[in-house]
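Hi R.,

Here's the chain you asked about this morning:
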Amino acid sequence: MPRGFFDRLIDKIQRLVMWVVVTGLLLMVTVQMILANPNLEKSLISKIPRVKKILTIGQQSNFNPPVKNTSAKQVFSVQEDYMTLSLQNKLKTPHVNLIINNQVVDNFKDGVVRFKIQEGDLIAIDARGSKGGLWFKVVELSNRLATFKPQQQFWVKNEYKVLGRVKRLSKF
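And here is the predicted structure, written out as tokens:
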């Protein structure tokens, strides 16, 4: 029985679609294998020539970039984060230490400690050997810190207490 024109057209379209799908899948698998190669820098794909310098119209090939101006002024400065803790008890306790990243930074002999901190610093208070409980309060704080809040208080009684790890607020 002879096949009609539309039947032959549908068969050709089906073959074309199958060919496109199979070719696309093979291409995707090949690209994934190339990109997943841990030695990509040493492989053949890294040896493909690529443009290293782009010259504008009329620019010579022996172009040298301008020398950096050493008299430039600083426009932005890196803000350092800080925190101030005060001892709320009316005692002066030189044996109570402020510890940042397992390093003794200062003690509370004057009742107040102001210190610089960076993101990721672990802040602790070592009050081992103190008699009775001690109240500590965050008196001053950089605006960009999320871990601690102004006026936040901590109770420490004859212990090594980790106050927390410094985290910054998101920049956006």
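One quick note: Residues 5-35 form the longest helix (31 residues).

Cheers,
M.
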